[in-house]
Amino acid sequence: MKHICRFLLLLFALSTCSGQSRPNLVIIYCDDLGYGDIGPFGATKQKTPALDQMAKEGMRLTDFYSTCSVCTPSRASLMTGCYPRRVNMHQDEKNLCVLFPAARKGLHPDEVTIADLLKTQGYRTKCIGKWHLGDHPDFLPTRQGFDSYLGIPYSNDMNRKEVPLPLVRDEQAIELVIGRKQSPLTERYTKEAVQFIKESGRQPFFLYFPHAAVHNPLFPGKQFLGKSQNGKYGDWVEEIDWSTEQILQAIKDAGVDNNTMVVFTSDNGAGNKLGRNAPLKGKKGRTDEGGMRVPCVVRWPGKIPAGTSSGALTTTMDWLPTMAHLTGTALPDNPIDGHNIWPVLTAKTSTSPYDAFYYYQMDQLQAVRSGKWKLFVEMESKKKNWGKPEGAAELLLYDLDQDIGESRNVAEANPSVVQRLLAFAEEARNELGDVNCKGSGQRKAGWVDTPAPRLLPSASDNN
Ligand SMILES: [Ca+2]
After folding, report:
1. CATH number, position 399
2. Neighbour count for residue 336 (Cβ, 10 Å)
3. What digits encode the pLDDT tens for the residues 275-322?
4. Which listed residue (68, 82, 97, 132) is catalytic?
5. How far is the CA of 64 from the centre of ligand 1 (A)?
6. Cβ contact 317:40 at 8 Å
7. How far is the CA of 159 from the centre of ligand 1 (A)?
């Protein structure tokens, strides 16, 4: 059904949009890059001149959130504009926090992704890097609106037991990668991205580039080893910066700089001890700000005011509706949770479109933010969950404007704020669910009864 709808929408788009200049759209999505890990957000141990320049030419979003502090749920939100629980990607089939190789679960093929939407407008679409929304062929990027894919479909740490990782082109593994053989991948991915931009010509394109960097284990390219003042971690951040520079240059070379929006952000906070989430508290795996608030820089010359920043609360769920707005595309029929943040990006407003934002860790609602206030709700103790704040048997209220490090609980002094945020939390439980409680607005994940064997190259494949 989705395919028939796509075809009809494509016909409609081609008949109405020909001759119009539709913007090119690029999302560079880092893995485990902390809030303070790049120059525009205060990093000093590694140098990020390309990102510094990108921020000078664009906007920093200082209160930009991922919807989860780990990979799979965050990516489900980015692709669908929904909270992970809404699309049932908040945990895997064994109730672990992310998908593992040969998973039976994946993002439901009927979910409408950003790539699906843009395909209806005649975009070329490509995904390069870490997918992590299902490695069964039914769940790969090519089944979710992408014309082509190159990457390892899950985390780069899945080869702890010397099991090689499959490098997949479209739906076929073309090579196995193990250990240090990962180190040329950032460069290879970047070349693929540059080539894609070059080949797009006058056709609008959507490039989704989820890096493996800087997820553990750390594998910066050879030419970056030892270059930063922050070990392999800093070296790899510097390689991401180099990669971003190549992409921005390719866009300029293609003559489409003034018609291209580039988003640079991360899927969750830093977990590595060399990473920096400061001035935020906490790290990957937690619903403290350091786990969920991530750096974000957006650039579109002539459209997004240069050298600006916005403190409006925005999230990864907003790219789908924002890109739909920019391309004149109808939103999916099913409800989504993100908002069109074009008014924020063009500095028409400094007000967040969110009345409330919810911090879930896997199936558990842990906190809610509204305006400057963040409330940790009382939680059932769940040892398997990461991210349970210390001593959260009581309500914890923080004023993030005054206390970005979440150090002073002001719940007692602000009972009416607590009540208001508790009411929001109840709305979330009803709609999206909580531990042992289904939400009325949840949809099904994709499921295959028989997991596909691990993706392996066939004997006849070389590159
Ligand atoms: Ca991650």
Report:
1. 3.30.1120.10
2. 20
3. 999 999 999 999 999 999 999 999 999 999 999 999 999 999 999 999
4. 132
5. 16
6. no
7. 16
Distance of CA 219 to the CA centre of its chain: 21
* Residue 242 pLDDT level (bands cut at 50, 70, 90): very high
Distance, CA 225 to ligand 1 centroid (Å)?
22
Query: What is the distance between the terminal CA atoms of the chain, rounded to a whole angstrom?
Result: 34
- For the question of residue 71 being annotated catalytic, the response is yes
Annotated active-site residue 3? The verdict is no
Q: Please give the residue range of the domain that contains residue 175.
A: 2-13+22-345
Cα 119 off chain centre by: 20
Residue 455 covered by a domain: no
Q: How many Cα atoms occupy the beta-carbon half-sphere of 63 within 13 Å?
A: 22
Helical (H) or strand (E) element with 411: none
CATH number at residue 293: 3.40.720.10
The per-residue pLDDT for range 125-179, each reduced to its tens digit, is: 999 999 999 999 999 999 999 999 999 999 888 655 567 889 999 999 999 998 7
Instruction: Record the pTM.
Output: 0.93
The DSSP symbol for 258 reads G
